[in-house]
């Protein structure tokens, strides 16, 4: 299944409709899933049609815009009520990635002062498009900052999917890989499959193969062994929420990778936009961790391999303490050994 | 799918035939796979109809016995040639678990002096049965020794399958769990699914549910997170080969578990019979690590989720350095912080 020549676009805004690549069926099928309302976007986020913290934020922004468009000819009171419901529905779709709440905050700002509903709807559509375009520029800046850290020929371990599919384009951690490749650094990638949802096996491997970036797929439990054999040079991951002190919530398993990197004296980088940093959350202990369904663990894609009725734990994220992070790669540059003071400075600049 | 009232038996010797539970189709189906020759047993080992270091050793012993039985009316020269071929075929089935070679050595000893082929065949069948019975007794002794280490209410992390299915009965690491339960310690188990072959999800979860031992299934990448939250008290794993210095070859991912246990100050135990200790191998660096097929990583059970043609690494085992092992639980007792001297003493006693 090939992507178009313009590259992979997780989200497309066409004729006032949002089209999402259905990431549940990649790489076997490249299909678009259309959304026409905030409720449909919220359901697409919940069901992981679209996933990845920045992409979720963009999708939620379009969810607000879609709702405004469909309700613009109602009375102002009805319009306001519909918008409040849309914000609530979208905010309840997934709890951990903060970009969702950040994007909703941006859209709320664009809504005020409202003016008449049709002009508000037009403004919200423009705001969502601007947010999507800005995300691509942000990722390119992250990529440039991160590529400067990458040695020629580096063998980069990455996790989950942090590429074009997880963002409006280019990617965060995978954006660093793309930028390093564009700088002719001859990098290669070891991609963890990332159980239970297999974003690494399905999405990261696919994205990298589309661009002829060398990739080797492994199961998540092989990382320690490969590090011990000296086959990995550094780790770059994305983030779903970064607390004010630099603690990182990211896909379950990230904390283990950070410990393994520390033990084998390898750099462990987190690549994320400032919109992933939640200054209002003091540390990782305050970040809500989503628990997802048992069916994700007992099998995959309709196939169940575990015994019927087995008890399951399925936390979707974990917390990596800031002291394990070698550097936080943002659109404002690299924050080495992030802490509260350095992170606050990012927002002051 | 329920096991018989006599408990799970990975191997049965009935009417001169070897019947193996087909572990490829558990837990959905409980089927027996019959073998009548050394070549059939070797193929069953290679294809993982039977797996687990002690069970592989027992199966190989029956492979020798089967071959002797079917060739007992040939000329002595033909019989000898067939037996040599049988030993070679069985030895080539899988490279890492040393119990295979240990069992073949026992069978070779039972063959010499040969005498006439029919009496040799009878002796080899007896030797294989004795080896299987001894494995159960060995596992019960391991279980008793290990249970003494387990606190009441302990939440035990285990990996892969080390139970009745991996042995002639009772199990090694899971045998310790069984013995702890029999001692009314109120233990519970966290079972890692163990990608790529999912022995934890399919076999360990099934065995424990058969016996009403509380089990929670997780993906392998959740261990660090759960340890950080204080939800795991200790780790017990099995082994495929232990070098003379105490380095442990076991299912890929074991090394990572050992590092995580060390970091979180949790005991990391290895439960294995003396037949798993390879005194002739100085350290873990000399243990051959089997590389298995890409298809195990790109999907499961005929379903492929990774892109066609993606490069894959699939080492089936890794090496845990002896210094990460809190204790080696054997049928001769627990060796705390194993090293070359303590391991040599096990064989002297």
Gist?
The structure is a homodimer of 349-residue chains. Chain A is an alpha/beta fold and 349 residues long.
Note down, in words, how this protein is organized.
Chain A has 349 residues and is of the alpha/beta class. In chain A, 40% of the residues lie in helices and 17% in strands. Chain A contains 11 helices and 17 strands. In chain A, the strands form 4 sheets. The first copy, chain A, has a 7-stranded mixed beta sheet with strand order 6-5-4-7-10-16-17. Chain A has a 4-stranded mixed beta sheet with strand order 11-8-9-15, with helices on one face. A 3-stranded antiparallel beta sheet of chain A has the order 1-2-3, with helices on one face. In chain A, helix 2 runs antiparallel to helix 3 and helix 2 runs antiparallel to helix 5. The N terminus of chain A is likely disordered. At the A-B interface, helix 7, strand 6, helix 8, helix 9 and strand 14 of A face helix 7, strand 6, helix 8, helix 9 and strand 14 of B.
């Amino acid at each position: 299944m090939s992507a178009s020549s313009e590259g992979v676009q997780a989200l497309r805004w066409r004729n006032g409709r949002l089209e999402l690549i259905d990431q549940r069926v990649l790489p076997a099928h490249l299909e678009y899933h259309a959304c026409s309302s905030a409720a449909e976007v919220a359901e697409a986020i919940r069901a992981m049609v679209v996933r990845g913290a920045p992409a979720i934020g963009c999708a939620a922004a379009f969810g607000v815009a879609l709702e405004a468009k469909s309700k613009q000819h109602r009375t102002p009171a009805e319009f306001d009520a519909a918008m409040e419901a849309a914000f609530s529905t979208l905010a309840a779709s997934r709890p951990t990635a903060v970009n969702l709440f950040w994007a909703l905050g941006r859209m709320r700002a664009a809504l005020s002062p409202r003016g008449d509903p049709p002009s508000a709807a037009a403004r919200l559509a423009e705001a969502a498009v601007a947010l999507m375009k800005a995300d691509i520029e942000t990722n390119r800046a992250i990529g440039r900052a991160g590529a400067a850290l990458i040695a020629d020929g580096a063998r980069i371990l990455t996790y989950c999917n942090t590429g074009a599919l997880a963002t409006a384009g280019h990617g965060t951690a995978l954006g660093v890989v793309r930028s390093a490749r564009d700088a002719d650094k001859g990098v290669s990638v070891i991609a963890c499959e990332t159980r239970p949802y297999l974003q690494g096996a399905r999405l990261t491997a696919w994205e990298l193969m589309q661009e002829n970036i060398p990739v080797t797929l492994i199961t998540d439990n092989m990382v320690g062994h490969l590090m011990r054999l000296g086959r990995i040079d550094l780790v770059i991951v994305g983030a779903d929420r970064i607390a004010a002190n630099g603690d990182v919530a990211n896909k379950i398993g990230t904390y283990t990778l950070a410990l393994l990197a520390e033990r084998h004296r390898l750099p462990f980088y987190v690549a994320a936009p400032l919109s992933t940093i939640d200054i209002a959350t003091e540390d990782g202990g305050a970040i809500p961790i989503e628990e997802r369904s048992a069916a994700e663990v007992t099998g995959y894609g309709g196939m169940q391999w575990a015994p019927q009725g087995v008890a399951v734990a399925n936390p979707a994220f974990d917390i990596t303490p800031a002291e394990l992070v070698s550097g936080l790669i943002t659109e404002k540059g690299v924050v080495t050994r992030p802490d509260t003071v350095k992170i606050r400075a990012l927002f002051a600049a």
